[in-house]
Structures are given as structure tokens and as C-alpha cells.
Backbone:
């Protein structure tokens, strides 16, 4: 298991913690694979009834920009498919998955939270899909899941502006289920998990499967992967990444 990730199991609850706080838990290929393995472990463990995904200091501030900067479109497609694989495994897991969000949940981190069944957030949490500032679009399912949660208008606003919102605003939009004090996040997530762990696993799995089936987005996911990888052919993407790493405002030219 990747050293930047921890798994704890107690009383039917599995907790996955992204634990690389020095980088705000940015996620690259290795971390995505480790998260996928951890999710697979919790899925197979019959003692685990509920999963919680959280992060140390921050939930996840997005994809590793340094890893992405030299990717060609074909490599970007592979990366996007890996992100989709992980998020789909969260969504399709036959157990409830709770996101306990503190600090930043941006880009790929926000998309991981969106794939969870419920989202608890501490008062210091911030959410956003700022990929547009890199000349990109969300690549791990964000265009589809955010629209499913918030509707077309809100999703277009957040994705097209790249605006980062507070936990309070996220709750008012319906992105966050429960808002809690900073020091109560894991306790409250644990309380919710304990309630769910007492329910029938069969009933929970069937409920999750049926609700997910009402919003089948497979073609949308494929279109998103295609569009994400094609962005890597553009000069705007090169400029966006360069500007981010140089800590300046990008100058996009539409090509």
C-alpha cells in the first residue's frame, strides 16, 4: 500500500485516509492506484459494512500538476480512465461510502467526494472544479456527477468559472449533506457510519444500485474522457500548466 494512504478498520467501518498533508494530498497515478486497492480491500472484507474516505488536514487538492504537465493526449486518456475507475469503484461499491471533507476538495479531489454516497464537511472545507484555469475540464467524472447533484445551471457556473466555494455554500447548493465543526468531522462521520452499519447490507446495496441506475451516465463519462485528453493537444493547456507552476495568471488564446 502507498505510504501516503492509511486504512483503519473498526466496528464494521473502514476508514481510508489520504495522508500526505505536505502536498495537500494531491493525487497522481501511484496514489490513485493505492486508493483503488484500498477500496477493493474494503469491498472484499465482509466485516466492513460502511466506508469513510477522508484526508489529513486536506481532503485532496486535486491531481498532481507536475505529473500532468508533460502528458500527451494518449497518456492523459490513460490517467483519466484511472481516475474514472477509482471514482466508479466508489460509486458502485456495494456498501455506503461517506466522504469526510476537511480543507481543500478541488479538481480530482472534489470528484472523489462527488462519487461518494454522502458528504460531510468541516467548516473550513472548500470545494471546486478549477480545471478551466489549466485549460482543462474535469477528468474524473465531474461534469456528469456535479450536474446530477446540482443541476445544469449550477454545474456550468462552477466548472466554467473554476470558482472555489465554501462548505456553507456547498451545503446550500446540496453538494454537502452535513456541515460540522472542524474538530467534530471524524466523530460525526463515524456516528453516521455507525447508523448505516446497523442496517441491512442487502437493503443498502440494493438501494444504492437502484438510485445510481436512475442516472446512468456511461456515455457522458466516455465523452468526458475524450474531451479531457483532447485538451492536452492545445496551447491553452500548456499555457495553463506553465502559468500555474510559475504562479501567474494564464493568458489563453483559444488554440
Residues:
Amino acid at each position: 500500500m502507498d505510504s501516503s494512504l492509511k486504512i483503519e478498520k473498526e466496528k464494521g467501518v473502514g476508514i481510508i485516509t489520504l495522508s500526505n498533508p505536505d502536498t495537500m494530498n494531491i493525487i497522481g497515478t501511484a496514489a490513485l492506484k493505492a486508493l483503488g486497492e484500498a477500496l477493493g480491500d474494503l469491498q472484499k472484507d465482509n466485516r466492513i459494512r460502511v466506508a469513510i474516505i477522508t484526508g489529513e488536514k486536506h481532503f485532496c487538492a486535486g491531481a498532481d500538476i507536475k505529473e500532468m504537465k508533460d502528458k500527451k493526449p494518449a497518456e492523459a486518456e490513460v490517467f483519466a480512465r484511472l481516475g474514472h475507475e477509482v471514482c466508479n469503484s466508489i460509486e458502485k461499491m456495494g456498501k455506503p461510502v461517506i466522504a469526510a471533507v476537511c480543507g481543500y476538495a478541488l479538481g480530482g479531489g472534489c470528484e472523489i467526494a462527488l462519487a461518494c454516497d454522502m458528504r460531510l464537511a468541516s467548516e473550513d472545507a472548500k470545494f471546486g472544479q478549477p480545471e478551466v484555469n489549466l485549460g482543462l475540464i474535469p477528468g474524473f467524472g465531474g461534469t456528469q456527477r456535479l450536474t446530477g447533484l446540482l443541476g445544469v445551471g449550477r454545474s456550468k457556473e462552477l466548472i466554467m468559472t473554476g470558482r472555489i466555494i465554501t462548505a456553507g455554500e456547498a451545503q446550500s447548493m446540496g453538494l454537502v449533506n452535513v456541515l460540522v465543526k472542524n474538530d467534530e468531522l471524524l466523530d460525526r462521520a463515524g456516528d453516521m457510519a455507525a447508523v448505516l452499519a446497523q442496517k441491512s447490507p442487502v437493503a443498502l446495496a440494493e438501494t444504492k444500485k437502484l438510485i445510481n441506475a436512475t442516472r446512468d451516465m456511461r456515455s457522458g463519462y466516455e465523452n468526458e474522457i475524450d474531451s479531457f485528453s483532447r485538451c492536452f493537444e492545445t496551447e491553452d493547456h500548456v499555457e495553463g500548466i506553465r502559468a500555474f507552476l510559475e504562479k501567474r495568471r494564464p493568458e489563453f488564446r483559444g488554440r
Observations:
- The longest strand covers residues 5-10.
